[in-house]
Amino acid sequence: MQQRNNHPRRNHxxxxxxxxxxxxxxxxxxxxxxxxxxxxxETQLAGDTIxxxxxxxxxxxYLRVTRGVGVGT
Length: 73
What we know:
Low-confidence stretches: none
Radius of gyration: 14 Å
Shape: elongated
Mean pLDDT: 80
Number of strands: 2
């Protein structure tokens, strides 16, 4: 059995990459929206513009889900 190390994964800029499989983003759509906004701000401060855009896109998705825009279409 392969053992996982306890070191956090890092992206090309050295920012820690959160493991979404282990509860990285749980809760209702509003909580997920808030979580992705916070992560976007963190990654912006770290200088990772690609991950920042990714988080903002996810936040926008959950904002739409919260408002019911485009759901089921």
